[in-house]
Amino acid sequence: MKKPLIGVLTVLLLAGVTALAAPASAAAAPSGPAAQAQPAVAVSFAGTVALSNCSGSLVRMPNSAAGDPALVLSNGHCLENGMPGPGEVVVGRASSRTFSLLGSTGGKLGTLRADKVVYGTMTDTDVSLYRLDTTYAAIQSRYGIAPLTIAATHPAQGASIKVVSGYWKKIYSCSVDGFAYRLKEGEWTFKDSVRYTSSCNTIGGTSGSPVVSTATGEVVAVNNTGNEDGESCTVNNPCEVDQNGKVTVRQGINYAQQTYGIPACFAAGNRLDLTRAGCTLPRP
User: What domains sit in the chain, N to C, each tagged with a CATH number?
Assistant: First the structure.
């Protein structure tokens, strides 16, 4: 867990220990012939947010409308009431948490406020989704910021990504190295986790950062943990477990939880419906 600050040392599942990075939107698109052959999306801090102890992002589902209540994505272990236990799922809990909304260069544009934790868990994944007391249209009108879209498709191995931390105002660049069948950290187990190549050396406080595809600009995962000390399957030292039960420890390597399964769980109006066809998020 990659939470910042002293009080967060016990919160293991924070996104891999990433050093203060630069804005995710800062990546410039390639120029010349290479740009035509392999166009890339410029990734910046626009649409990212800073929490009191983590990072996050203003997000929309592929079918979200401008008038829908806006959503903020972060980690389950970043919830203000503490980390959910194994098997625990938080749905529809009142919240007045605030978020600092960032512009493209990382400067604070204003403060957003939640009215509800729509969903939060550390079972199978490590995710929290807050509903704000305002709409995407209102945010766009006041701050000129549009939400990031959560992709509804599984990311590919080798894909170029950027991890954008609103807390540290830093952007990490790397690729999807592969996927961990199971990632075990302390009492928690995550499924089909994204493993970064080594250049995304995230640190505490980067937990909850959106993992953005440089090909589409969409969110493909949410940053959450990394193996800091080479220990096996302990807090802050997750281990990979394959289909045959073989355990692999990769010290210094960091991970994220995929988000492609989230859109299937949201109906029109950004309404959570865990009974929808195709929704595989854990239920309470």
Answer: 46-151+261-268 (2.40.10)
